[in-house]
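Appendix B. Chain record.
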Amino acid sequence: MLPDLVKKEQNVYLVQQKGNMAVPCQIYLKEELLPYLEEEAVEQLSAAAALPGVFKYVLGMPDIHTGYGLPIGGVLAVTYPEGVVSAGAVGMDINCGVRLLTTNLSRQDLGPRVLQQLLTAVEELVPTGIGTKSKYKLDRQLKNIVEEGVPHLVKLGLADADDLERIEEGGCLAGGDLAACSREAQARMNQLSTLGGGNHFIEFSVVDRIFDKETASFFNLAQEQIVIMIHSGSRGFGHQICQDYSREMAQQAPRFGITLPNRGLACAPIQSELGKRYMAAMACAVNFAFANRQLIQADVISAMTKVLGKKASHIKLLYDVAHNIAKREHHFGRELLIHRKGATRALPPGHKNNPGHFNATGHPVLLPGSMGTHSYIATGLKRAEETFCSVNHGAGRVLSRTAARKSISNSDFREQMKGIHYNVSNYKRIVDEAPRAYKDIHLVVDTLAEIGIINLVANVKPIAVIKGEG
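Structure tokens predicted for this chain:
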């Protein structure tokens, strides 16, 4: 165990205040995950605890690993409006997020030949990989899409209005203003409706285990049912916005009297002109990402209809959750700006911000593992209030991309992906996403489930995965 870490209670550890830290840090980990906790990630949490306006504590989720500025799996709360906003504490892929679709199909409906046909059909419609361009001719609509989000796609007939209640923020984070985005960022808006590379994926999975029968039934989840998970974000548009504002915030910090703990945590007062511009630009990227996943959903449904015909007539959105976002929220009797970087919102039942449809259960929380391991569907519980209603966003890496490429052989990769169809013929193009590069998702979710922060509803295991190269 790292020397600065003190066990507070089951699965909860503290990093006490020291140096410039204004608040302590609190990290959620099962004992089995402690060997994977990087000293640099703890240092990044501690650095964030020195930012102006930081409130109560800085949190590390059980998927925590070193990032840029704030670690991935980090949650930073600052007082609103007098605190600061940090582009690096939101992250490069603004609103990288996950949505889950339910179907009326069972495992028996998708044999090997059909699965391969589905992968081919989806790839024909959804551009994958780094730098790919949209096939939609929406140039004249992009301003409205990034400022209004999925509701504008509804106006265009490209989305179902019923889906809005099943997307965090109703598919639109208010306050987006395209004028706050640089020319370079706007030039990258042509990536709408593309999957991207890295850890982004489209996955066909089968429901493997039901933990909460009543909630699973309400979510339309059943044993052996086929579900589809889509993981993508704001693509180059959001990446450019983070780069632009991280640089400007670092340059402007002395003018605001801010001493930065590191360049990755460059920030500006929320109410400053720079802070307001970033919030407006970030909202555009958030809305772009919601729209991106919505259009990918439409293409996936089209591909499934092409291959399966009427069998694919009951594909519905369960929910869409955001990662990498900063939002105004009310916690501990205070108005706060919550930065979630590689973290997921998890509202408990009865919380006023739940969509009406999910008020009695809490909205679905989607926790993907890796392309060769289980993913989980959960809900938040009352104790989630201590984490600003935040949980992990996935499994979390244990091997860097470079380390994975060096240490995982072709035979290792094939063994880890045994029984799972995937779309890339050369394993070297996606080996950095091999299951062994990630923590054990079961240990990660159990960290929070064992202490009553989340309620496990079901888990699913992949049978076919589409990854973008690069």
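Further analysis of this model is presented in Appendix C.
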